[in-house]
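Hi again,

Forgot to attach this to my earlier email, sorry! This is the prediction with S-adenosylmethionine bound. I've pasted everything inline since the attachment limit keeps bouncing my files.
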Amino acid sequence: MPSLAQHLMANPVVSAVYEGLWRPTFTRIFSLGGPGTAEYDKAFTAYLARTGERQILDVACGPGLYTRRLAQHLTGDGRAIGLDFSPAMLARAVHKPHDRTTFIRGDAHHLPFPDDTFDTVACFAALYLIPDPLPVIDELVRVTRPGGEIAIFTSVQTAVSRIPGVQLVGRMTGYHFFGDDEITERLRQAGVSRIEQTIVDQGQFVLAHKDHS
Ligand SMILES: C[S@@+](CC[C@H](N)C(=O)[O-])C[C@H]1O[C@@H](n2cnc3c(N)ncnc32)[C@H](O)[C@@H]1O
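Structure tokens for the complex follow:
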């Protein structure tokens, strides 16, 4: 069953204000306790958007803000595909075309791609609002080629998220605060051994490389 947060993301009004208002506000909320999230986010995205002829998948791309950023230095046949299940978000995404992006509707639990397809698979600011999120991590790993990278930005439990009122709001909206090792452990179980996790303020950035079999 979709969570309240997922319902909101399917709403055309929320989609319309997402890029300019909602995402920046959430990034600020993630920065509670320090100024680091926005800065780290910039560096993380710049690294992932490095030049090359790469195939990138941006899972739960919303209006495509990051899909476009990831695509900006691609060369040759490099492409960035954004996938989301909200038609309202995708309508925003295709509103600002970029010659190296493609947007498709799909469910993160069942990515419509063969195994070992992408050089980079990103999933930003989404896992915490997807019910039953851990199987999505298996899907991210499945579609990444051996040696390719999986990049995740999501929530983590902190002193702030342990405040009872914050937990209550989380439960009511379907927002999940991941335990410190929940994401990294699932990546390990999916067969990934090179994992870097950086906890910044109220969020975590994870960069993992799929093993060569
Ligand atoms: C908070 S937005 C994040 C958008 C973008 N990744 C960013 O960082 O700005 C979360 C997105 O996840 C999408 N989403 C939620 N559940 C999904 C699912 N099961 N499959 C695909 N997309 C999903 C929502 O429609 C929404 O666009």
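Residues 131 and 164 are 21 Å apart (CA to CA). Residues 12-30 form the longest helix (19 residues).

That should be everything now.

G.
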